[in-house]
Write a structure and sequence with these properties.
Layout (H helix, E strand, L loop, with lengths): L12 H10 L2 H11 L11 H7 L3 H11 L10 H8 L2 H11 L10 H7 L3 H11 L10 H7 L3 H11 L10 H8 L2 H11 L10 H8 L2 H11 L10 H8 L2 H11 L10 H7 L3 H11 L10 H8 L2 H10 L12 H8 L2 H7 L14 H7 L3 H11 L10 H8 L2 H7 L24 H13 L3 H22 L3 H17 L7 H15 L19 E4 L3 E4 L20 E4 L5
Helix pairs in contact: 1-2, 1-3, 2-4, 3-4, 3-5, 4-6, 5-6, 5-7, 6-8, 7-8, 7-9, 8-10, 9-10, 9-11, 10-12, 11-12, 11-13, 13-14, 13-15, 14-16, 15-16, 15-17, 16-18, 17-18, 17-19, 18-20, 19-20, 20-21, 20-22, 21-22, 21-23, 23-24, 23-25, 24-26, 25-26, 29-30
């Protein structure tokens, strides 16, 4: 800590201010004649004001005779500083000479104390500065209410309730605007019917500020009141996006129009509040303003594009007369998921001038979520090129969309081509294998086709076995089985090996003893009928009718027979 001599000559105001703030009373007394009323270059504050900030009563007493009526650049006095800090003893000392002073904006020490909710200082100053107003006509009560100083406001209301500003503001209206339910209720009896010069009531202000409690307090007495511009509390709530308030006021004020003919719906649209618009539009959709514009036209001309699509969707959707583009198509191109849900199924299967449905745009933009939404309604729709959505996805190479639409793999285009046809340039690629695997597993005659294929394959193997007996034949058969495995390839990697095993087992079970290639009966036509249980392929399809329950080759009893269908 610095040690100053008992007597010290201060040379500059910077040191003077520091000495005063440090409370060095001897040095202050020795130099006060030289530096009295010296001001800070920036704020205009004096040493007395610095001492007030520090609540240094001893220094203030020394300086007060020299700086009692001095103010800073904004007109603030030491008493105002004491009031806004809640220094009661300091305020008592200063009010003798400074009470009743006003700043350039008209504020008093009482207003400062009220704003900061120092009730003891408020009680001290109220008898001397109560009912004084600032240059806007505001009272200390209004300042307290606006700042949420409830204790100070309760004291001031006894004297200043009922006073109005130059704009017609009252403390009650300030409470409603600030959303202060406690003070609004306190002031309701004396000021509840007050309005601004513009005609705004407490309900208007509470609706705008979003105070549900105050709206409920005032609803029965102030609803259906219109401002000079014709606006209702519902319009204020909608324009501010206060959905809870909109729901409270809806039944009482829906359908009103302001001086320009605008409704609450239009206010919600212009300010971008979709949730409020959704509630109001069904009740006000047929109303037009004084320029003849509907809510949709206002949305399309002045509101953000998403809002205009939402309004159009709630009204059932529109169709552009020039391009044929529907609201659903436009929403899909922008990926507006919620709007698409509203328009399904009303605008599905409608095409624009390019012959495109909404799902075609969803696929083109690789939007999987929109594709999922539209698939049940437009999955089979063809575009101008005769392609449905899966074909477009195949051409785009979009695997995620293909998987979503793969149930349409057997759905042909306008010329009868299947989606797999569009993989011709890469027949062994992932997309081709994906489509092929799904097609063979979902074909209605899949099992019959596989059975016929295996029977025909067995016959071929049998014929080869008669002609070849060396190891080359076995190698050929192994390679053929490998090709079969690749043919039935599946992304799961299991189906191929399983099918190969099934084919091999089936071939083993069909090791048929053959008499010779021609039919044993007519000795003319090929023998393509297999007899069970002996498994002899020894009769043609024409002569099979002559069977008398015995195999013509071995005379064993016939349990059943079947014909190999090579081209089934």
């Amino acid at each position: 800590m610095l040690n100053f001599p008992l007597k010290m000559s201060i040379l500059d105001k910077f040191t003077w201010f520091n000495v005063c703030r440090a409370g060095l009373t001897n040095q202050i007394k020795d130099n006060i004649s030289k530096f009295k009323t010296t001001r800070d270059e920036v704020t205009g504050a004096t040493a007395l004001m610095h001492a007030c900030v520090d609540n240094n009563l001893e220094v203030v007493r020394i300086l007060l005779p020299y700086e009692d009526v001095v103010t800073d650049n904004s007109g603030k006095t030491g008493l105002m500083i004491a009031a806004e800090h809640g220094y009661l003893d300091l305020a008592k000392l200063l009010m003798v000479t400074q009470v009743g002073k006003q700043r350039e904006n008209g504020q008093t020490a009482l207003m400062h104390a009220a704003a900061y909710d120092f009730e003891e200082v408020v009680e001290l100053l109220l008898p001397r500065e109560g009912t004084m107003i600032d240059r806007n006509g505001w009272t200390a009560l209004m300042c307290a209410v606006w700042r949420g100083s409830n204790k100070a406001a309760s004291i001031l209301a006894q004297v200043e309730a009922g006073m109005t500003s130059y704009q017609g503001e009252t403390a009650f209206l300030c409470a409603c605007d600030a959303g202060n339910y406690e003070l609004a209720k306190l002031l309701l009896e004396k000021e509840g019917k007050s309005t601004l010069r513009s005609g705004e009531t407490g309900l208007h202000l509470a609706a705008r500020s979003g105070s549900k409690a105050i709206v409920e307090l005032l609803l029965e007495t102030l609803c259906r009141k219109q401002t000079q511009a014709g606006k209702t509390a519902l319009m204020y709530a909608a324009s501010a996006g206060n959905l809870e308030i909109v729901l409270l006021l809806l039944e009482r004020e829906v359908g009103y129009q302001d001086a320009e003919g605008r409704t609450a719906t239009m206010g919600a649209i212009l300010n971008g509040h979709e949730d409020c618009m959704k509630v109001l539009l069904p009740r006000e959709k047929d109303i037009v303003d004084k320029k003849g514009r509907s809510a949709l036209e206002i949305a399309q001309s002045t509101a953000p594009s998403v809002m205009s699509y939402h309004v159009a969707a709630l009204l059932g959707g529109t169709v552009d007369p020039t391009t044929g583009s529907t609201t659903l198509i436009q929403a899909t191109r922008l990926g507006l998921f919620d709007i698409i849900k509203i328009l399904i199924p009303a605008q599905t299967n409608l095409t624009d001038e390019s012959g495109m449905c909404a799902i075609h745009y969803a696929v083109a933009s690789h939007n999987l979520e929109c594709t999922k939404l539209l698939k049940p309604y437009e999955g089979k729709a063809l575009n101008a090129n005769g392609h449905h959505a899966l074909i477009m996805a195949v051409m785009e190479g979009n695997v995620s969309v293909i998987l979503e639409l793969i149930e349409h793999s057997w759905l042909p285009d306008a010329e009868g081509n299947y989606p797999i046809t569009y993989c011709a340039e890469n027949p062994m690629g992932d997309i081709y294998q994906l489509l092929f695997s799904h097609m063979i597993q979902t074909h209605p005659n899949f099992k019959v086709v596989i059975r016929s294929f295996c029977d025909a394959l067995h016959k071929g193997f049998s014929l080869l076995a008669n002609e070849y007996s060396d190891s080359e034949n076995l190698e050929f058969l192994s390679e053929l089985l490998l090709l079969i495995s690749e043919l039935f390839f599946s992304p799961e990697k299991l189906a191929a090996s399983q099918i190969t095993a099934d084919i091999t087992a089936l071939l083993d079970s069909f090791t048929v003893a053959v008499h010779e290639s021609p039919c044993c009966v007519c000795i003319d036509r090929p023998a393509f009928v297999i007899i069970r249980p002996c498994l002899h392929m020894c009769i043609c399809s024409t002569c099979v009718a002559s069977l008398r329950g015995r195999c013509p080759y071995c005379q064993s009893t016939v349990a059943e027979y079947f014909e190999i269908a090579l081209e089934e």
